[in-house]
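Long-time lurker, first post. I've been practising inverse folding by hand and with some scripts of my own, and I keep getting stuck on stretches where the structure tokens seem ambiguous. Below is the full token string for one chain I'm working on. Before anyone asks, I'm not after the true native sequence, just a reasonable design that respects the backbone. If someone could post their per-position residues I'd love to compare against what I wrote down in my notebook.
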């Protein structure tokens, strides 16, 4: 049996799955999370799905390598259509996709998500959009994390059905749990975001037509500066 070491992003996602869960990994691609969970006996059952045949073939190859072909239920399906009520899944992972894709998957399949299910979401972009969708659709953020790989930061959001925290005046761009626990990677992540915003604002300011865009970028930059002053 090969040992399996996950990247920091995948490890941070796997760490949010309660041991003993019945897990559905939606958009599993190489099935690294399912294999990690089974090799380490951290899940009682795993479904790995993808809506493309190529990634499912890659998943089958990983499973074969670890002699786990029979242990994982591989399903070709769009989003949450992969899960049936009788699967009795308690943790759904949707990771490595854009925030918009994650919101669209959740919107099309939210009826399958009961109060007993934890969502472990890892948007590659637009985490704020995912937080807004959750708040607008009766899901509460119960935990969050940030993983770093080189210069890239990845946000992980854990949500369940329920009332969210008071959002007050901070925007969805800032994870409420990350802020509440002053996550050690929140400051460097926001500093990087602020540097990029300032660069984009300076670039856009060369064009008179982009005045509104510059105003928005500067407003966002001021907001990030304010949040950074609390950290
Ligand atoms: C970049 S991979 C991420 C793989 C893995 N989840 C990770 O975090 O490393 C995204 C995968 O999601 C799949 N995908 C995208 N939209 C999907 C959908 N609506 N339903 C199921 N899978 C989807 C893609 O085919 C692709 O294999």
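-- Answer (accepted) --
I ran through it position by position. Result:
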């Amino acid at each position: 049996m090969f040992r399996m070491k996950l990247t920091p992003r995948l490890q941070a996602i796997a760490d949010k799955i309660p041991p003993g869960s019945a897990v559905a990994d939606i958009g599993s691609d190489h099935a690294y999370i399912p294999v990690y969970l089974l090799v380490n006996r951290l899940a009682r059952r795993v479904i790995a799905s993808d809506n493309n045949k190529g990634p499912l073939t890659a998943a089958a190859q990983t499973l074969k390598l670890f002699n786990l072909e029979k242990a994982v239920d591989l399903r070709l399906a769009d989003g949450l259509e992969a899960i049936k009520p009788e699967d009795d899944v308690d943790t759904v992972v949707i990771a490595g996709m854009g925030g918009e894709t994650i919101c669209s998957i959740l919107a099309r399949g939210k009826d399958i998500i009961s109060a007993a299910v934890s969502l472990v979401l890892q948007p590659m972009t637009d985490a704020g959009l995912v937080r807004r969708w959750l708040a607008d659709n009766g899901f509460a953020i119960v935990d969050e994390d940030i993983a770093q790989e080189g210069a890239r930061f990845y946000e992980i959001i854990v949500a369940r059905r329920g009332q969210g925290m008071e959002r007050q005046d901070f925007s969805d761009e800032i994870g409420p749990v990350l802020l509440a626990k002053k996550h050690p990677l929140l400051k460097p992540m926001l500093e990087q975001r602020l540097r990029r915003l300032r660069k984009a604002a300076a670039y856009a300011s060369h064009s008179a037509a982009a005045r509104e865009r510059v105003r928005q970028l500067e407003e966002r930059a001021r907001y990030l500066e304010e949040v950074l002053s609390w950290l």
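A couple of notes from the structure itself: Residues 211-230 form the longest helix (20 residues). Residues 189-230 form one domain. Happy to go over any region you disagree with.
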